[in-house]
Amino acid sequence: SRQINNCNGEITNLLCLGLICHYQGQYNEAVKYYQQALKTNIKLEDLTSEYLFLKAKTLGNLGITYHNLDKYNESVQCNESSLALFHQLGDQRGEASALLGLGQDYYTLGDYEKGFDCTQQALDIAQEIGDRYNEAEALNILGMLYREMGDYEQAIDLHQQQIIIVREVGDLRGEGYAMGNLSVVYEKLEDYVQSGNYAQKHLAISQRLGDRRGEGAALHSLGIALLELSEFTDALKILQTALAIFKEVDSKSEEAQILQDLAIVYWELNDIDSALECCYKALDLITALELPSIKNCQELIEQIKNNEQQRD
């Protein structure tokens, strides 16, 4: 049994190191620690429930990290394995976490039906066992799903519910996510002043937490608000800062989105060469990641080119 305790201790240490890297935006480093934890040798007869719990937890963390690295298929596999182990252990909190990981994956992959299904299951479990953290996260993902389906009122309502819970449990990071998502909803509603206000709140929280990814997302939303309010020079500066952050944390999908927004800013500033350069960089990233936004990017390139020909 000493061997098991040593083994579990080693896995716990690797898990902690992985989490530290993850929160600092060092996702590739985090992956190494999680994979090392999963490779820890243990004899078959020593498969205690504590060991299985740690393995399930590691798989779940690895899933989140893969998601942030835009490796969505790997993320789905990790979350499904994590879900199966937590189910085997009868650990409902773990099941809810794994289902939320899947909900997030399917949301990003544009499979909203599966996203709804997983997230709603997670919400039901979380409410049943009084798990406020996962309940808030489920409301967050459902809000994002409703937003993408065009039901903005429902999205706002869900994020407001989320804010009540995260404040109650003192989850500042969760509050930041809620502010960030409300900023995006108001952007869709074309209320750019309100969108900018929520982006500023998200930015302040992210900077306080040292959350680089959150900071990048907040600056991205703020940049879009400034672009729509025709503050092009400010928008350019803010979006370039956001782009640098997402390059730093190696998030290619966010990089691609910001490049497209930068293209529009350059276009508005009559710098057509820079606009097209941003578009082509974005197109390369989107193509490599097989993201659903490829059509939008191609249309933007056509618009800029046609507009330029008309001017000539």
TrEMBL record:
<dbReference type="InterPro" id="IPR013105">
    <property type="entry name" value="TPR_2"/>
</dbReference>
<protein>
    <submittedName>
        <fullName>Tetratricopeptide repeat protein</fullName>
    </submittedName>
</protein>
<keyword id="KW-0802">TPR repeat</keyword>
<feature type="repeat" description="TPR">
    <location>
        <begin position="11"/>
        <end position="44"/>
    </location>
</feature>
<feature type="repeat" description="TPR">
    <location>
        <begin position="96"/>
        <end position="129"/>
    </location>
</feature>
<dbReference type="Pfam" id="PF07719">
    <property type="entry name" value="TPR_2"/>
</dbReference>
<dbReference type="Pfam" id="PF13374">
    <property type="entry name" value="TPR_10"/>
</dbReference>
<dbReference type="Pfam" id="PF13424">
    <property type="entry name" value="TPR_12"/>
</dbReference>
<feature type="repeat" description="TPR">
    <location>
        <begin position="136"/>
        <end position="169"/>
    </location>
</feature>
<dbReference type="Pfam" id="PF13181">
    <property type="entry name" value="TPR_8"/>
</dbReference>
<keyword id="KW-0677">Repeat</keyword>
<dbReference type="InterPro" id="IPR019734">
    <property type="entry name" value="TPR_rpt"/>
</dbReference>
<dbReference type="InterPro" id="IPR011990">
    <property type="entry name" value="TPR-like_helical_dom_sf"/>
</dbReference>
